[in-house]
């Protein structure tokens, strides 16, 4: 396995462990063992655990960006249907892990935003990028006549914040019901044309 492949494997395994245990609790030795990379080799690939964590954030953000683009860019469906399809996919994803993982970016934001300025800045950038994706989808929905006029950026902030909260509650309750409730309220009361303004 080449250096690049080993680095990628460390990121992959680290992401799986950190999303469940948290960044501070995750042991580098455990990650190295799970990745099949000799102990003591970590600093050949990363200058510090902080650099490693930021690489994981970057990898997750890139992967997530791809998923969002797949759903929001699927022109076979109307904009609101694309949004609903995305949420339903994430609910199924949460069910598949028995509500153990949640959102890595949300998890790290809760854990590290007051501890590490580099993490706080990068995590904020990721959230901002996601908000922009939601805002564009909502703008498309408005142009398609699916929703009434909104301040799409503000609505996107509300949707993302509520969604992240629902994911957190799903982790705590070990149930996707909070996520399902969010989706139901969003589409039946917030985004329906009769109640929007």
Average pLDDT value?
Answer: 92
Tally of helical runs: 9
The CATH topology of the largest domain is given as: Tetracycline Repressor, domain 2
Stretches where pLDDT is under 50 for at least 5 consecutive residues are none
Task: Report the biggest beta sheet as strand number plus sense, adding barrel if it closes.
Answer: none
Which class of secondary structure composition applies to the elements?
A: mainly alpha
- Integer tally of domains: 2
What name goes with the CATH superfamily of the largest domain? Tetracycline Repressor, domain 2
CATH class category label of the largest domain: Mainly Alpha
- Quote the beta fraction: under 5%
Shape: elongated
> What's the architecture of the largest domain, going by CATH?
Orthogonal Bundle
Distance linking N and C termini: 57 Å
What report would you give on this structure?
By secondary structure, the protein is mostly helical. The chain folds into two domains: 1-46, Arc Repressor Mutant, subunit A, CATH 1.10.10; 49-190, Orthogonal Bundle (Tetracycline Repressor, domain 2). Helices cover 74% and strands 0% of the residues. The chain has helices spanning 3-21, 28-35, 42-45, 49-72, 79-96, 104-112, 117-143, 152-173, 177-190. Helix 1 (3-21) crosses helix 4 (49-72), helix 5 (79-96) packs across helix 7 and helix 6 crosses helix 7. The longest helix is centred in the middle third of the chain and has 27 residues, at 117-143. The model has no long low-confidence stretch (mean pLDDT 92).
């Amino acid at each position: 396995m080449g250096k690049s492949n080993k680095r990628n494997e460390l990121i992959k395994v680290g992401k799986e462990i950190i999303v469940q245990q948290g960044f501070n609790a995750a042991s580098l030795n455990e990650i190295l063992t799970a990745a099949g990379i000799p102990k003591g080799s970590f600093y050949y690939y990363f200058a510090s655990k902080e650099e490693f964590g930021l690489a994981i954030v970057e990898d997750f953000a890139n992967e997530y960006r791809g998923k969002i683009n797949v759903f929001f860019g699927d022109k076979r469906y109307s904009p609101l249907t694309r949004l609903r399809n995305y949420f339903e996919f994430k609910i199924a994803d949460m069910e598949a892990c028995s509500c153990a993982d949640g959102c890595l970016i949300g998890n790290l934001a809760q854990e590290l935003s007051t501890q590490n300025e580099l993490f706080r800045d990068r995590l904020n950038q990721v959230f901002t990028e996601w908000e922009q994706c939601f805002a564009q989808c909502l703008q498309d929905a408005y142009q398609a006549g699916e929703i009434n006029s909104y301040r799409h950026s503000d609505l996107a902030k509300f949707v993302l914040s509520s969604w992240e909260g629902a994911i957190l509650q799903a982790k705590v309750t070990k149930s996707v019901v909070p996520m399902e409730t969010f989706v139901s309220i969003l589409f039946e009361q917030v985004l329906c044309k009769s109640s929007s303004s």
